[in-house]
Amino acid sequence: MERREKEMEGWETPKRTECRIPAVFPCPPPPKKKAAAAAFGKRRDPPKNGYFQPPDLEALFALAPRREACA
């Protein structure tokens, strides 16, 4: 046991600054939001071809007249 104790006497935790764990730095602040007023204040021109015109659904689903059976 004496030999082992003698070997362990020389071991120490390094205390030099380059051996230390670096200090924790605070996180940077979050990015700033863009001004919302600039986005909402701009008006867009209407589309060149006009807005979407849905098809006439009444004509699309209208029942075709019944054909009389030839007898």
Describe, in plain words, how this protein is organized in 3D:
With 71 residues, the chain is an all-alpha fold. 24% of the residues lie in helices and 0% in strands. It is built from three helices and no strands. The longest helix has 7 residues, at 2-8. It is elongated, with a radius of gyration of 42 Å. The relative contact order is 0.05.
* Largest sheet geometry: none
Rg estimate, integer Å: 42 Å
Distance between the termini: 121 Å
Taken as a percent bin, the fraction of beta residues is: under 5%
Helix content: 10-25%
H/I helix tally: 3
Q: Based on helices, strands and strand pairing, what is the structural class?
A: mainly alpha
What order do the helices and strands come in, and which of them pair?
Blueprint: H1 2-8, H2 36-41, H3 57-60
Please provide a brief summary of the model:
The protein contains 3 helices and no strands. By secondary structure, the chain is an all-alpha fold.
Short key terms for the protein model shown above:
mainly alpha, single chain, 71 residues
